[in-house]
Amino acid sequence: MRRTLTFAALAFLLAAGAAFGQAQRGTISIQVQADDGSALPGATVSAASDQTLTRRTVITGSDGSATLVGLDPATNYVVEVSLESFGTARFENVLVKAGQSTPLQAQLSLATISEEVVVTGELPLVDITSAQTGEDITLQLTEALPTARSYQDYLQLVPGVQATIDGEGNPASRSGINYRDVLGEVGRSTDNFYYFDGINVTDNVTGTFGANLNTEIIQEQSVLTGGIPAEFVGAPGLISNVVTKSGGNDFSGSVNYYFQDDSLVDDNEHFANQSFSRFDTAVTLGGPLVRDKAWFYASYRLLEREDDVISPDDNSLLRSVTNESDQGFAKLTWAITDQDLFSGLFLSDPSDISGRRDNNLSNARDFAREQGGERFSLNYNRVFSNLFVELGYSDHEGDLNDTPTILEAENTASFRNTDVFRQSDEQLGGDGDLDLDTRGNELTRLSVEWLGDSSFGDHNVKGGYEFGESFLFEDERFVDGAQYVSLSSRYTGQGIRLGQIDGTDGGGGFSTTSFVSDNQDNVNGLNNFLATHPRRGEILAAHDLDGNGILSGDELAQMQFFSTAGNPHGQINYTRDLETASGQRTMTSEVNAAYVQDLWQWNRWSINLGVRAERFEHFASTGARVHDFGWEYAPRLSVAYDLRGDGRQRLSLYYGRYYDAIRNNMTAFAGSLNGQQVEEQLWFESIGEYVTYRERGGPTTQNGFFAPNIRTPYTDELQLGYKQDLGNNMSFEANVIRRETSDIMEDFSPTLYTDAADYIAHGGDLSDPNSLFLGEDYFGFGAAGQPQANFFISTLPPEAFREWTGVELVLRKRYSDNWQALASYNYADAEGNTNSDGLADFGGDVLWLDPRAPNVEGTQPGLVEHLFKVAASYDWDNGFQVGGAYRYNSGVVANVSGQVAFDRHIPQRVSSSFEFAGINDRWIDASSVGQYENPSYGILDLRAAYLWDINGRMTADFFLDIFNVLDEQEAAREQTLVGGGSGFQFGQGVVFNDPRRYFLGARLRF
Fold first, then answer.
1. Contact between 155 and 134 (Cβ < 8 Å)
2. Cα gap 203→205, rounded to integer Å
3. Which of 269, 475, 605, 724 has the fewest CB atoms within 10 Å, measured from its CB?
4. pLDDT tens per residue across span 129-172
């Protein structure tokens, strides 16, 4: 009998407070009945698998039910049910998935029928207690399909996960951002979480994956896309957790060799001279240290890849890039007793990459990279009757060190957007940065699970607490001490005006801008530095046309540029970043997280009510705290109903909030108080010198400052779902989803929104009903006003939003009768007026990109409206196997961009100014935001394999994968800059689907 839950138990859970640790494991819930349908209390239920040391034995309660908790994921649990005076029942090949419950129903006959009942038929496919959406990606599925042998590529099988572009490996899901203004990138999300056995390996700066591993060690990859209960961290994108193998009572392992080279790749229609080769080999070994007590599993993988990078200008070979990676893994699992389990894990993935595969980079801008690191975890769990407790500690560390191929100062030559120029004309000098970065985190966690019953039904209460610290170490230095943006020497003698460069004169502008005359931050900063400049008088005499002692944006727009003096490549001086100090610095952030949730089951109803609390603090490189976001509370509620009472159909409704914590790139933005210091400067012909208009880094002027009233961005999800077991190991699922993102973060001009005089000087009318002015009270600055800083980081006004609506249909056939399949269709629509996502854009720097400004709202860039995918395999009894996957998307939506500023693609502006809120400006063009749709395309991949059974002790696998069988080499991304750039004209393909490729492999397993 389960004990009745008491207030004291709930209080204990709340005090314990939550990590991903519990989500690594699953449960089995079982109902035991007699032939007449009556409940059978006191029955013994046990579960075990040869894939894990986790074993559980429980006794059914008064209602004949029992729950086996804390089970490691496995595909072949054996569940046995027995009761004195009754026969026994046995379930084989029971699938347990991480973070989910597998329901079973057992029927026992009186002992007069003495034989054991072995249940070999279908097992239930619907968790009737949960509203979670996502997929468990099993070995049985991935090993039968053509895949790229990476856990990132396996994500492409999951419904709703969008296509990656150019090998980024960080796909978007649902409302996760799928477009960045930086370089106009699409097909790359920064909103996912990645875990290895509960270790958070998400890059804490970029929001992308921060580690790699050998796919041979994966037991299961659990991917959550929605309906996420309080025990999980929330994410606007997806949550991926790789559960690794543990070994077994018998020694087992594998040796493999996979190969691909240029002779196995069809001709490239776009880059004819491009070639490619890949070598991939790995060895694994697992087995017992002590049978039934201690197991080990280890692997080593060597991966070598070489790519030719082809120039987009003339199809010539730019460079050959090599990538050598070593991936090591070791895991120990020890069942101290039947109730106590300990595991320890170690992973490493050092990689040496000779250069970049991006053909947007010329050889001059190429750089080598050393990346990868080490990570380990320790976990202990124990079952105390109705209580399951787990303790865990993990440490993740990864390097990202870049060395330019050419040790010269970076110099970007800017051209008229109407002129034709080559990549080699634009990218002069070297990459310009010597970067040493180390990123990582430490996590300590406690989670508990308590089973109880009451007169109103059964309860499964979970709670947990997590403390984590992440860090970013940086040692960055400029080659030759400076980086330049110059005007091309082809304009020598023409006297190009600043207004022509930034487009404020109504012209087409130049390809790259760095000082913009209608950016008030730039103008104000310049005047601040001029106040103490020794040659201020000469500068004002030449440019202060109205004689008021300061330079306005209009006056600066008339400046002309002629000189090439001192320019490292003979270009016309425009701007530069001058390094004035260098050194090392480390910024940190801390998170405290707690949750409690209760899954209450009553008759056909299952209600999961929980709340997750999270607190984030950020610390500067000096150790001083730069901001405490305080506790944020994220409610999660799901209601599931068993439609027929047979566990085969579920109708669910879900509401939940997911907080999107600000990453360590913003910690560095606000907390870089030592180390490298840079002065941003504009060239003045009148004195033949560069003049500083902004300092970045160092103790003098804080680069960014967290405003007191800043709030953590969050996404609210509402989901209506239906799932049905169709029989024959098939299930169908339909979901309708609505997501809204609010409290979106941005960096702001220090005066534009808070200084009424500055706003009025910019043309603003405070009395206009559409006024964009916010005032200091909005940001929480007191009577003393805001501190001295280049920018302050805060929350966009309430009108800033992103909305995402989607429909998802999923059909899955789990492996039986020699075949399996997974098919899905997703429709999505997204609207918004800001794309800011922890990488501060210009929404708070210039009024014409304010979310409330004209024509900023539109289709959210990054949207893929239609997404269809299907994967299936079939096995013959003679060992032959075929598998295939087809993926189609309707094309990624992007912005039509007018110019590049600070590497960002700025939406196209109107050529003639018009008035809004009293301000006459060149606002965003109505045909810009979300108005460019990249081409649709579909890719078909096939696999043919033969599995040779050698004396029943070993198996040899031989396979041939054919990627892009139909050789469809359409563009996946096109140039969206109206004036073109980096060798690509507007509308021209930038990234293309790879040509048909053949991949050969062999593996010996024992």
1. no
2. 6
3. 269
4. 999 999 999 888 999 999 888 999 999 999 999 988 876 789 99
